[in-house]
Amino acid sequence: MTTKRKIIIDTDPGQDDAVAILLALASPELDVLGITVVAGNVPLPLTALNTRKIVELAGRPDIPIYAGCAEPMDRPLVTAEHVHGRTGLDGPTLPDPQIELQAEHAVDYLIDTLRETSGVTLCPLGPLTNIATALRRAPEIAENIREIVLMGGGYFEGGNITPAAEFNIYVDPTAADIVFQSGIPITVLPLDVTHQALVIPSRVEAFRALPNRAGPAVAELTDFFERYDKEKYGSEGAPLHDPTVIAYLLDPTLFESRHINVTVETQSDLTLGATVADWWRVSDRPRNATWVRNINADGFFKLLTERIATLP
Ligand code: RIB
Ligand code: CA
User: Fold this and answer.
1) DSSP-derived pairing of the beta strands 255-260 and 120-124
2) What is the C-alpha separation between 93 and 77, in angstroms, rounded?
């Protein structure tokens, strides 16, 4: 029996975050130590409530949930209700959760846990405020972080919240810069790859047809989530961003990547939050990240559907 991979998910649910969390909780290869919550798609009170609802939908009251930073490190919060709805989890009607938040702040939890536990993979699915704040307060925790596998950024696909920047990086560019300069092994699932993971009708119907509670709920989450992106991109389905992070942990052979330099723009008003990915290695900047560019989309959705089928 291979040992489970210890992970901490940092998240701003968000429909796609919800599917990523469900995938992780449905995968026995992963030991989800805890889930930390950050403001992003919607303000922190809602991302925290949404995380509780999702963990309850997965039937996993054993998973501790910690609320974290309500604002970016040095700029006002930008949210995305236009994409995710006022609640941030529009689509299915999920009951008020019984699961409570832990009393400890997410940053304190990250520091306390990473001081004591080695070999932990961090899976940020939203702005990097919690992670960067923990690294700034306790730099020594970096030695216990095996890898950071995050959804964020874009290069060949440009941006989604501005022409130059992807939302998670744009909301807190200072935090992203701290993470990308930390020296910790980083793998990035950017828009370049998530825009290939489109929830086309046949894939949504496969979720809806599952004979459990989670399958139809995922279909209702994606039904709502996709209306904005389909209109914007004129595509047959919306990109399912965050679950690609978890799928990468479960089966990296579904992906193609290159180890390159990635630098975050933190000064320019025009391109704030841009991830300058030196894919063609034309600079002598140090290679600090594995940039994922392609996905086997059919294989990804097959894995995702099979795992969601195992939930209550
Ligand atoms: O740009 C897409 C990312 O921003 C996803 O993580 C989505 O949930 C939002 O956080
Ligand atoms: Ca997210």
Assistant:
1) unpaired
2) 27
Are 23 and 123 within 8 A, CB to CB? no
Half-sphere exposure of 260 (CA within 13 A, CB side): 18
pLDDT digit string (tens) for 30-75?
A: 999 999 999 999 999 999 999 999 999 999 999 999 999 999 999 9
Distance 36 CA to ligand 1 centre (A): 16
The yes-or-no answer on residue 84 being catalytic is no
Average pLDDT, the chain: 96
Provide the H-helix boundaries in the chain.
15-25, 44-57, 81-84, 106-116, 129-137, 167-171, 173-180, 191-194, 201-208, 214-233, 243-250, 297-308
Token pair, residue 249, equals 């942990």
Catalytic option among 84, 105, 195, 241: 241
- How far is residue 278's CA from residue 287's CA, in Å, rounded to a whole number? 9
CA separation for the pair 176, 142 (Å, rounded): 15
Is residue 11 within 6 Å of ligand 1 at its C-beta? no
The count of structural domains within the chain is: 1
Q: Residue 17's domain is classified under what CATH number?
A: 3.90.245.10
- Whose tokens are 């990308």? That residue is 180
Domain, as residue range, for 125: 5-308
Please tell me if the CB atom of residue 244 comes closer than 6 angstroms to any atom of ligand 1: no
